[in-house]
Write a structure and sequence with these properties.
Layout lengths: L2 H36 L12
């Protein structure tokens, strides 16, 4: 691959990472909203997959 192609691959991956972070944030907000509706006030969900 040429330098330009590698730079383009990095740009694409950076954009994908940004979109995935936004999606994760949206899921986190949804979890918090649902926890509120269910009356679950303790924070056992850390968002780190545990």
């Amino acid at each position: 691959m040429s330098k330009e192609e590698l730079i383009e691959v990095i740009r694409i991956k950076d954009q994908l990472l940004k979109e995935l972070r936004e999606e994760i944030d949206a899921y986190g907000a949804l979890v918090e909203e649902l926890r509120g509706k269910l009356g679950i006030s303790d924070h056992t969900y850390s968002g780190n997959g545990d």
